[in-house]
Each structure stands twice: as structure tokens, then as C-alpha cells.
Specification:
It is built from eleven helices and 23 strands. By secondary structure, it is of the alpha+beta class. The protein has three domains: about 150 residues, 2-Layer Sandwich (Alpha-D-Glucose-1,6-Bisphosphate, Chain A, domain 4); about 140 residues, 2-Layer Sandwich (Alpha-D-Glucose-1,6-Bisphosphate, Chain A, domain 4); about 160 residues, START domain (Alpha-D-Glucose-1,6-Bisphosphate, Chain A, domain 4, 2-Layer Sandwich), CATH 3.30.530. The strands form three sheets. Strands 1-2-8-7-6-5-4-3 form an eight-stranded antiparallel beta sheet. Strands 9, 10, 11, 12, 13, 14, 15 and 16 form an eight-stranded antiparallel beta sheet that branches. The chain has a seven-stranded antiparallel beta sheet with strand order 17-23-22-21-20-19-18, sandwiched between helices. A hairpin with a 3-residue loop joins strand 13 and strand 14. Helix 4 packs across helix 7.
């Protein structure tokens, strides 16, 4: 620590924990009560946080006969880089000092730099010692939480307001919440402080898992905090959830933080339920929903006089794909398919005298019901490239294919939409909807003839 000539106190501290976790501990009411202005023998009586610029905090601790009152007003919140607030104590009508906290990620953890500006009038050493004690408390608090938390982040090519809408609108929430293979009912309840949502998640075997969220913090387009438990309101919640929405270039970074009562509870859901992979799949599905909100997908439906298992094979086995995949009139060369989540289908394609390459990256494979994948043009090495004949065509497309029994045949439904596209790419997609319908229809004509021949 050091004191500069203009009455500015600077304290630095390194933490062996992710920068997001350390930053979030400054804005979460439950966390703050465990470390900020907390003394060994004191008793917290009030911890209130309104985590937005213009909002603030109030922290009151009873220290014997004395009520120690601390309060602040947020002037900058830039997660997870910087937090600044004006700060007052006791009955001050206006803040008397300013605190700025800068956070820098390190290879193993992060570094915090706290700058406290004020007129110290003889209590510089006491203030410095106070911050050292407070940061010791923070280290212990975050260290405990680091063992109990799961943190998953994902960036989306969409503005914060749209991502917030996808998370907080019940109709949207029901279409993406949960890992792949689950369906979710539309939440019932109210999105308000101390309000709740109830919904069921149903796995592929039909097992129903009731869920109940109780909202603790709602800062539109920025932060959502809730307790997450089962459907019975008489039981304690299972874990706490904090969701933050931050600008990320022209898009939005969502960080989903789940905090469990203890390390054993956290380890159980990781080892037995696959909570980390489930969280990643959930945010991936959120991205798919965001893409559909941004742009209505092209939908193509076709009925085939062949059993569903065979039609599914025709979409997934190279020996079948070589006979029909791609635009009508093209020739597929060397198709190879690793049919699993994260696997790739790669191929060459001769069309109109030109040689092109393409690939799909599977997000979901549920035989014989459903396929979800990214598809794109590539160079020979498999790296994504723009459309060879249309520079403003989306580099990546999101494709969902549904297979269902219809009489003795199969109905195939394709949903096609841009993925992580910019405005120009989305406009090009919209302008070519008729051509896309014709393209898929031509491919399906070839598939229909091929199915009839085998």
C-alpha cells in the first residue's frame, strides 16, 4: 500500500481466484455481508445493494453499543474491470470520499488495485489498516466461494437488451433452459424482487424435475440473482444463481454463476449430474434461441415415403450423403462424418465447375429424432471462410432438422437461420429466402429419388 501526496491511498492485493468471482463479491448483498466492513465481534444488521450506476449500498454493523453505518453510491460498474463508488459513513448527507477498484486478470487469479481518495486528517494509518483487514476478509470469503461455485460464460452476437429479453421472457425461457434432451415448461409466476417462477424440466425418459426460482436482485439488462430450488417452497433452496450481462464488443457476454451451500454439494452435481457440461449446453441453446429471435428462420418441410430410421441415416451416413447432399446438380467428394456432439461432417463439393469445401459441427445428435449443427464453407484445412459467391452471406448458419413419423413415412422439417451474424449478413439472408427454399427443395427432390432406389 502507499499514500500519495494528494491524500490518495492505494492498496494492491492478488487473489488466486477468477477475476469475475472477485468482482462479483463486491456487488452481491449476501457476499458483502460476509466481508465488507465486517469485524470479528460485530453483528450485521443491514446489507442492502442496488447494483447499478446511480444505485448504492448500505451496510450497518452493530459493534457493542455502537451502530457502524457505511453507505455508498455507485458511479461506475464495468464488470469485471472496474468498480467506483462515492463513500460515506454515519449520518453524512453526502459522500466524503471516493473508492475506485480496478481488477486485472492474471494467469492464475487476478490483481485488485484499490484507490481511496479523501482528506484523511490524521487517520491515514487506520484507514489503510482497515482496507488491509477488509481485503483479508474478501480473500477468505471468495476462497470459500471458489470451492462452492460453478462459473460458465458465453458471448453472443446480440445486444444486451435482446439477451436479457431471451432470459426473462417466460415464452423464450421455456425454449432454451436446460441441457440438450430436456424440455422445459413455460414458467409461471412474477419476475419481481421476492417473486418466483415455477416450471418443470422433463428429461428424455419423461422424468419430471420441478424447479422454483425466487428472485433476489433484478437490474434490467445487467444482472439477475435468484435462489434456485425444487418445486416445494417449504424446503430450502439448493443453490444461488447470479447471471450478469456485459457488453462484449458489439455483442454480450453472459456469465452464469451457481453458488452451492458447500463444496460437497457442488462436487456432487459436477460428478453425478454433469452440471458443468449441462450449463455449457444450456448457454449454447440460449444462443440458438437468440439467433431465432434476431431473425425468423427459413422453415422447409417435406414428407418422404421411407421409414424414419432410414431417412435419419440418409442425413448422417457418408455413404448416403454422397448421393444427395448439397445443391441439386453438385457432386459430393470424400464425405466423412463423426456423428456426435462436437463432431464434424466434412466434405468437398464440385458445383458449376468450381471446387468448394464445407463442414458441419454437431451441437445435438438425437437419433432418429433431431439434429442441430453449425454449417459453413471452409478452406481445404477446414477453416471457416465466406461464401465463395456472396461475401455478405452469413459465415455460419444454424441448422435444426426434425424427423417425425407420418403414416408409414417420415416428415422432415428444417429450420435454417444465421448464427452470430452481423446486420449486413442478416439482410442478405432475408433477401434470399425464396432462393433458400428452392435450394432445399431441389436437394430434397434428389433425396426422394435416392430413397426410392435403396
Amino acid at each position: 500500500m502507499r499514500m500519495t501526496s494528494n491524500n490518495t491511498l492505494v492498496v494492491k492485493r492478488r487473489f488466486a481466484y477468477p477475476v469475475e468471482s472477485v468482482f462479483d463479491a463486491w456487488l452481491d448483498a449476501k457476499a458483502l455481508g460476509a466481508w465488507l466492513f465486517k469485524t470479528p465481534d460485530g453483528k450485521m444488521e443491514k446489507v442492502e445493494v442496488d447494483a447499478r450506476v446511480g444505485g448504492g449500498f448500505k451496510i450497518n454493523e452493530r459493534r457493542g453499543e455502537v451502530l457502524a453505518e457505511h453507505w455508498g453510491r455507485y458511479i461506475e460498474i464495468d464488470r469485471p474491470r472496474r468498480l467506483a463508488f462515492d463513500f460515506g459513513v454515519g449520518g453524512d448527507s453526502e459522500p466524503t470520499t471516493r473508492v475506485t477498484v480496478d481488477f486485472a486478470p492474471l494467469e492464475a487469479g487476478c490483481e485488485l488495485t484499490l484507490t481511496h481518495e479523501g482528506v484523511w486528517a490524521g487517520y491515514e494509518e487506520r484507514t489503510a489498516q482497515g482496507w488491509v483487514m477488509i481485503l483479508d476478509n474478501l480473500s477468505r470469503s471468495v476462497g470459500d466461494e471458489a470451492e462452492r461455485e460453478i462459473v460458465i460464460s458465453r458471448s453472443f452476437a446480440a445486444p444486451r437488451a435482446l439477451v436479457w429479453e431471451a432470459w426473462t421472457t417466460p415464452e423464450h425461457f421455456a425454449q432454451w433452459m436446460g441441457p440438450r434432451g430436456f424440455t422445459t415448461t413455460k414458467p409461471v409466476g412474477q419476475l419481481k424482487i421476492e417473486g418466483s417462477w415455477r416450471y418443470d424440466m422433463v428429461d428424455a425418459d419423461g422424468t419430471v424435475y420441478p424447479n422454483r426460482l425466487v428472485f433476489r436482485e433484478i437490474t434490467p439488462n445487467s444482472r439477475l440473482a435468484y435462489d434456485h430450488g425444487g418445486g416445494d417452497e417449504t424446503t430450502a433452496h439448493d443453490f444461488e444463481v447470479i447471471v450478469t450481462f456485459a457488453d462484449d464488443g458489439d455483442g454480450t457476454k453472459v456469465t452464469l454463476r451457481s453458488l452451492f451451500p458447500n463444496k460437497a454439494a457442488r462436487d456432487f452435481v459436477v460428478e453425478n449430474i454433469g452440471a458443468i457440461e449441462g450449463g455449457r449446453q444450456t448457454l449454447e441453446r440460449l444462443g440458438e434461441k437468440i439467433a431465432h429471435i434476431q431473425q425468423e428462420p427459413v422453415v422447409i418441410t417435406r414428407d418422404f415415403t421411407a421409414p424414419r430410421a432410414l431417412v435419419f441415416d440418409a442425413f448422417t451416413k457418408p455413404e448416403h450423403l454422397a448421393h444427395w447432399w448439397g445443391p441439386k446438380g453438385c457432386k459430393i467428394i470424400n464425405p466423412r462424418n463423426d456423428l456426435k456432439r462436437g463432431g464434424e461432417f466434412r466434405y468437398g463439393m464440385e458445383f458449376g465447375g468450381a471446387m468448394m469445401h464445407g463442414k458441419q459441427i454437431y451441437r445435438e445428435v438425437t437419433p432418429p429424432n433431431r439434429l442441430v449443427f453449425e454449417n459453413m464453407f471452409t478452406d481445404e484445412a477446414g477453416n471457416p471462410i465466406p461464401h465463395p459467391g456472396a461475401a455478405d452471406w452469413p459465415v455460419k448458419m444454424l441448422t435444426t432438422i426434425l424427423f417425425e413419423d407420418v403414416g408409414k413415412g417420415t416428415r422432415v422439417t428444417v429450420l435454417w437461420t444465421p448464427l452470430d451474424a452481423n446486420a449486413a449478413e442478416r439482410a442478405t439472408f432475408d433477401a434470399n429466402r425464396a432462393g433458400m427454399n428452392q435450394g432445399w427443395s431441389g436437394s430434397f427432390e434428389v433425396l426422394e429419388a435416392y430413397l426410392a432406389s435403396i
